[in-house]
Structures
1.
Amino acid sequence: MPLHTPKYTQFLEQLRQLRLQLGVTQVELSKRLGKPQQYVSRCEVGERRLDAVELIEWCEALGADVNVFFTDLRKALSNSPAVD
């Protein structure tokens, strides 16, 4: 499976937009996660995939509700012309 499907690209964009909307820099998020800044950068550009547990930690570090994130992602994917 390719690393960058249209759906995963949408996921990455939403992930980055969430961080930006909350006014959190990559450096600040990396500190909250206890990871290097490169980890955040690589995840956001798709060089490293996030698993479900990491996504929960990511949302918690941002003070965001992972359920809301998933609801918003499902809406975005259903409105996107790129299905696969």
Note: The chain is about 70% helix and 0% strand.
2.
Amino acid sequence: MKNARKIRYGDGSMIKQPAYVSFLRAVNVGGRVVKMEVLRDLFRGLGYAGVETFIASGNVIFESDSQDRSEMETRIERALQTALGYEVSVFVRNLAEVGVIAAHRPFPESSITAAGALNVGLLKAPLTAAARQSLSLLETEIDDFSTHGSEIYWICGKKQSESKISNAVLERTLKVKTTLRGFRTIQKLAAKYPE
């Protein structure tokens, strides 16, 4: 089975289930602290197997026999709302998709090397033409954007703190939910959890 990891059960039997990464928005930012153990327990409580967390910024790796990404996102969002008391948007990618995100080079390598920051904004779906036009209006002398699939790549030529761009600015401008991850985090995820 493509995009799966072997699972060994207590009786010695083995099966394969597809593996996914869920990227959570609003976890361990803005004064809201969620222990990774709480997230792991919540995912296990939903019946997901092989649950692991990666960096304390809301990246949860799990296995599921479902292939319905939208259903998984909605199910996890509802459970997080109930457990935490506030809305947490969830963006699910399979391991192959994480690898594609990490391998994509939207800007010249020289620009990436010289950049102060390179981030990936994960979306529920590709941007519409109107949203891509709105995104282009956010470009500045230090900020540039590129889209690929359901991701936005944002490169900042200086320190990110010198930019006026943020997750909130992107959501307000594009009128869609997103969560940002540093490109290096995506690369580390892809390396640790290859397809």
Note: The mean pLDDT is 91.
